[in-house]
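W.,

You were right to be curious about this one. When I first looked at the sequence I had no strong expectations either way, so I just let the prediction run and decided to look at it fresh. Below is the sequence, 185 residues in total, followed by the output.
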Amino acid sequence: MKHFLTFLLCGLLSFPALATTVRFETSMGNFSIALNEAKAPITCKNFLRYVHDDSYDGSIFHRVIKGFVIQGGGFTKTGKRLPSYAPIQNESDNGLSNLTGTIAMARTTDPDSATRQFYINVHDNPFLDGSTNKPGYAVFGHVIKGMKVVQAIANVQTGYDNTLGMPNVPSTPVIITHVSVVNNK
């Protein structure tokens, strides 16, 4: 009985409902993520800014690579680049790893260049983590519901998109119709 109570208490302490939960509604179904504001406070605050101003609504997953990541939040289905707030400080040294189901910020080669684009790992990608020798990509949460939807998005047909000028773009746009906070600590 003592072990069961310890197990139950540990489970309750790590239960995702204690974290801010964000729901993604997409043209392919819905999924939810739990944010890790304790380990990635700057990144979570930045991400929530875009959620609260509804600027992810109508954006697309513009980069889908099966067995790697799905990336979105930066473009409309017509290829229009969405406006961004100022770049944020990279928090890739927070101890969180780019494992399957985690969400992280996309950035350029400048470590402190992340703005609005994010990606969800559909495979373990620890090579994207930071180290003492190189900055990585900041993980700030994980999928807690709807991973089958994320995997379905990862398996759509893709190709080169002339409007966006990039490869790995879904042939049929995967639209993020709405992103909202459904549970706030």
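Here's what jumped out at me. The radius of gyration is 17 Å. And, maybe more interesting for your project: Helices lie at 2-13, 41-52, 147-154.

Coffee later to discuss?

I.
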